[in-house]
């Protein structure tokens, strides 16, 4: 599986370390909350709301340099809107990878 990285954040910041840290802090704050809401909606089988949660999370996935995972998230969002959870395991693996990475920042 691909690993998160700071390449996109570095390219956005133009070397501004304060901006980079603010963006990281926002992700570290929002990601756990958005992930928890996603799991709650998934457990309730409210797949439309879970798809909305994936929509929000996929932007953080891309910001963390996970291009392949971003495409998985896009596909999972579409499938959830159809009531299909077949990509759940793949998406959960992405969430675990990001969770572990954020602990290192």
UniProtKB/TrEMBL annotation:
It comes from the Bacteria. InterPro entries: HPT_dom_sf, Sig_transdc_His_kin_Hpt_dom. One of its GO terms (molecular function) is protein kinase activity. Gene3D superfamilies: HPT domain. Residues 16-105 form the HPt domain. Keywords: Phosphoprotein. GO terms for biological process: phosphorelay signal transduction system. The modification Phosphohistidine is found at residue 55. This is Hpt domain-containing protein. It comes from Aestuariibaculum suncheonense. The lineage of its organism: Bacteria, Pseudomonadati, Bacteroidota, Flavobacteriia, Flavobacteriales.
């Amino acid at each position: 599986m691909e690993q998160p990285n700071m390449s996109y954040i570095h390219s956005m910041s133009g070397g501004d370390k304060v901006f980079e840290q603010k963006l990281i802090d926002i992700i570290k704050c929002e990601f756990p909350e958005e992930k928890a809401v996603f799991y709650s909606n998934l457990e309730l089988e409210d797949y439309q709301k879970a798809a909305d949660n994936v929509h929000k999370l996929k932007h953080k996935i891309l910001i963390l340099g996970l291009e392949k995972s971003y495409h998985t998230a896009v596909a999972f969002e579409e499938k959830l809107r159809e009531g299909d959870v077949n990509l759940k395991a793949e998406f959960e693996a992405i969430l675990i990878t990001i969770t572990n990475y954020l602990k290192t920042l």
